[in-house]
Design a protein that fits this description.
single chain, alpha+beta, 6 helices, about 260 residues, Ribosomal Protein L22, Chain A, five-stranded mixed beta sheet, 2 domains, four-stranded mixed beta sheet
Length: about 260
């Protein structure tokens, strides 16, 4: 007989997000441990669930426990990182993903049948992680010390990035739609990094949801650089995500 899983430890911000924004639930991974029971499955709480985790919130013991949730391939990928901060971010991101998926599907987090989809560029077996379980879609993103996980019943993409530098804005404008470049030219110089990063995470979220990633030219799709995103296609919803200062994030959901 299975035990009832208490679920991820969540903190939901008391303040409502600004209009047009989504506010993720904060996922506390500090108490992670290898599960000795099989949790009962649950249903999604609405069309989209969005979680945030912070890498710096975990001590060395919690990081070791997080690594124990990963499979052999994920551990090998983690070991390949040269810098500890990048390795820790990868471990926390994939442990967070396994934690919320395990609770949703009623499976031990370390036993999830995650597979790699074919690469959208070359077709090799190193594309994005996926589940064979029908009706469950997810997306994972991490940047610096911040992790975002999105779960949905339809294709979904999420992206978080640290704010671009002024130099990065200058060198990467070819990734913008021509109308977005025109918009950016009208923005005061000190506001351009934030405007560019807003557009970039919107594009990445949408392309992740499509399943193409950056194999599809991001300049093809108009998502806007202003305070409100523009859906790049009629059957997609695009929303900005409320994240800590120094980051920008967005989520794209099909059929909503």
């Amino acid at each position: 007989m299975s035990e009832r899983h208490p679920g991820p430890l969540l903190t939901r911000p008391a303040d409502a997000p600004p209009p047009g924004w989504l506010c993720p639930a904060v996922l506390d991974l500090s108490g992670l441990r290898r599960q000795t029971y099989v949790p009962r499955p649950r249903t999604l709480d609405g069309p989209l669930e969005l979680y945030q985790a912070r890498v710096g919130a975990l001590d060395e013991h919690a990081l070791r426990c997080a690594q124990e949730l990963l499979d052999a391939e994920e551990r090998a990928r983690a070991r390949a990182f040269r810098h500890a901060r990048d390795r820790d971010a990868y471990v926390v991101a994939h442990a967070a993903l396994r934690n919320v998926l395990g609770v949703l599907l009623g499976m031990r987090a370390d036993a999830l049948p995650l597979v790699r989809e074919p690469c959208a560029g070359c077709g090799g077996p190193h594309g994005r992680p996926a589940l064979r379980t029908p009706g469950v879609h997810f997306s994972l993103s991490h940047s610096g010390g911040l992790v975002l996980v999105a779960l949905a019943a339809a294709p979904v993409g999420v992206d978080v990035e640290g704010l671009a530098t002024a130099q990065a804005v200058l060198s990467a404008q070819s990734a913008l739609h021509v109308a977005e470049r025109d918009e950016l030219a009208l923005v005061p110089a000190h506001e351009r990094p934030a405007a560019f990063t807003r557009a970039w995470v919107r594009k990445e979220a949408y392309l992740k949801g499509l399943g193409t990633g950056l194999v599809r030219d991001p300049a093809l799709d108009y998502v806007g650089t202003g305070p409100l995103p523009v859906a790049p296609a009629p059957d997609w919803t695009l929303r900005d995500v409320l994240v800590p200062a120094g980051y920008a994030a967005a989520v794209a959901l099909r059929g909503s």
